[in-house]
Structure formats: C-alpha cells, structure tokens
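hey
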C-alpha cells in the first residue's frame, strides 16, 4: 500500500470510529507496523488533520471537510484520466477556459499543451503552476484567500475577478452529485467561485468520478440542468445524467 493510500485509510477509519482510534487499532486494520502508523500520524498532524493523543489520534476535521490535495491527487487516477480524455474533446484553439482547482480538472489541464492561443482563468494554485510552463497559452489566476487543503483561491476577491471575464467553457468538479439534487460543495467559498464560473461561461461541464455520485453536501452548487454536460468514467452514468443537462437540448 502506498503512503498516501494508507493515510487516506487512517482518515476514513477515524471518521468511522467517531474520530478516535489507537495506534494498535490502526496497525490491525491496516496491517502496518507501529512505527509506520506513528510516522503517518505525525504527517497528518502536520497537515492539521488530526491531533495525536497518548497512544492514538483524534480527528480534527468534520466528515464533510475535504482531504488535502496531495491525497486526492492519488485517488481514482485512472478514472480521472478517462474523464479528462472525454472532456478534452470540448477544447479548441483560441478558446477562453475557466478551470477550477480540483484534481480531476488538473488532469485535464495537463492536456492543454496540445492547443494554441488558449486563455485560461483558474483559481487553482497547482493548476496555475502546471500551466505556467506551457507555451501558446495565456494564464490568469484569480487571486483571493488560499485554502490550504485544496490549494485553491477563494473568497469575494476571487469571485469578483471571475465576474469581469467571459469564457467559452468552464470545467469544474464537485464534492458530490446526484440526479435529484445536482452538484454540491462542502465549502461555501468554493461554492461562490464555481457559481461565478457557471454564470460567466457559455458552457459549464461537470467532471466527476462516480465515487461522488449519490452524495449531497451542504451547498447546492447547481442542478444538472445548469451544466452542458456531466462527464464521469462510466458511459451509462453519463447517459443517465445527460438526460437532464443542456447537452441534447436545442
């Protein structure tokens, strides 16, 4: 098991165990040594996700709080690549594109070096760093308040920055989505930025792997009808969701 996978499982176990677990319990659950678990707990504490206690750990975050970007980048990477491969068909030379800070959209951003005269506006620090090395691309970063876990820029200044621009297409992910309630976010600041992406783009495309399907979080981002298309890694889910999007509507 890779280190980030083990740390993710530790967080999941702490959530299920009412936020408290001992090193001994974690060793048994994860088939890892005490030294390995203690090292993982130290790293998680440095990321401000847990507090270490005598013989164990307690969760700092709530169940709806997202995990750090470094963990999410390693999750479902094959699914995210499949999604990016489907999403890139929407991009053409000369477009202006909004990109959020999600790891799924970051996978798509890695493919933009095949296009020319692209303008990208993003609130993602890691996305901006990646694209800063690409030629034939004009990059704009929103500014705003930095959220450490997601490495995203949020807040009123980020939202206002986006409001001054129009884009041909916006790509974004979400914390959860369902047919009934659409896409949702756990964080209100992320919600406002993504709402502005939707409002100022001709097309908004939702990119999300199916592990998020059926989950509804605090902030209702948008119903599926606000999106041009929903793209997951599964064709049957895409077909089901896109009955409700603008994709097949005049």
């Amino acid at each position: 098991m890779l280190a980030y996978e083990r740390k993710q499982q530790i967080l999941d176990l702490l959530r299920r165990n009412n936020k408290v677990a001992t090193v001994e319990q974690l060793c048994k659950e994860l088939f890892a040594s005490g030294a390995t678990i203690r090292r993982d707990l130290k790293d998680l504490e440095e990321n401000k996700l847990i507090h270490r206690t005598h013989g164990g750990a307690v969760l700092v975050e709530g169940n709806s709080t997202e995990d750090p970007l470094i963990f999410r980048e390693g999750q479902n990477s094959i699914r995210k690549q499949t999604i990016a491969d489907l999403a890139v068909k929407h991009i053409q030379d000369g477009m202006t594109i909004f990109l959020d800070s999600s790891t799924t959209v970051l996978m798509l951003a890695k493919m933009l070096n095949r296009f020319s005269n692209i303008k990208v506006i993003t609130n993602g620090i890691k996305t901006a760093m990646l694209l800063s090395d690409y030629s034939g691309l004009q990059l704009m970063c929103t500014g705003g308040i930095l959220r450490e876990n997601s490495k995203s820029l949020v807040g009123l200044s980020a939202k206002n920055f986006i409001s001054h621009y129009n884009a041909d297409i916006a790509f974004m992910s979400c914390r959860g989505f369902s047919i009934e309630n659409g896409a949702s976010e756990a964080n209100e600041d992320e919600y406002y930025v993504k709402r502005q992406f939707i409002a100022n783009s001709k097309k908004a495309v939702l990119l999300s792997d199916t592990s998020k399907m059926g989950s509804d979080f605090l902030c209702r981002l948008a119903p599926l009808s606000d999106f041009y298309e929903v793209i997951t890694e599964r064709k049957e889910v895409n077909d089901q969701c896109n009955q409700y999007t603008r994709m097949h509507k005049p």
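The longest helix spans residues 3-16. The chain has two domains: 3-63, 71-241.
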